[in-house]
């Protein structure tokens, strides 16, 4: 591993050492180019292969970067945050909010899953309707 991890309920600390390719990730967001509606935060848009972040393995695309070296990134322009990263030094401490997993999403945004028994129930109901229609047709003759 390239750094250390201190997690809290909402965020974790990731320490990265700048490598030949920098920190090894791209960012998106800021007050001037919101990535998430009603959120001026800075997000990881790409992890560069073989970069410091990829070697460490904890930072992922979609994670929100809350601060760099203790400096909060909320309500800053994209350009000013890029400059903070550029001048951050060799060892960089990031406070990161992990991208939420599917189980953290509202239930109406998750794909609907049916158990195999529910498919059998639907099939049985459909077969029952066909039988009733066939009986009704025969009685009508």
TrEMBL record:
GO biological process, one term: establishment or maintenance of epithelial cell apical/basal polarity
Gene3D superfamilies, per database record: 2.30.42.10
Alphabetical list of CDD domains matching this protein: PDZ_SYNJ2BP-like (cd06709)
Transmembrane segments: 119-137
Domain PDZ, first and last residues per copy: 13-100
Keywords, ordered alphabetically: Membrane, Mitochondrion, Mitochondrion outer membrane, Transmembrane, Transmembrane helix
Protein's recorded name: Synaptojanin-2-binding protein
Phylogenetic classification of the source organism: Eukaryota, Metazoa, Chordata, Craniata, Vertebrata
Gene designation per UniProt: SYNJ2BP
């Amino acid at each position: 591993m390239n750094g250390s991890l201190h997690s809290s309920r909402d965020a974790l600390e990731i320490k990265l050492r700048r490598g030949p390719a920098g920190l090894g990730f791209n960012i998106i967001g800021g007050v001037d180019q919101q990535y998430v509606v009603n959120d001026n935060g800075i997000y990881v848009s790409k992890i560069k292969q073989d970069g410091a972040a990829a070697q460490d393995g904890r930072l992922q695309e979609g994670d929100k970067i809350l601060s760099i070296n203790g400096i909060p990134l909320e309500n800053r322009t994209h350009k000013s945050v890029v400059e903070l990263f550029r001048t951050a030094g060799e060892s960089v401490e990031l406070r990161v909010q992990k991208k939420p997993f599917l189980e953290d999403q509202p239930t109406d945004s998750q794909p609907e899953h049916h158990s195999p028994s529910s498919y059998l129930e639907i099939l049985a109901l459909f077969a029952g309707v066909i039988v009733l229609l066939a009986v009704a047709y025969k009685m009508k003759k």
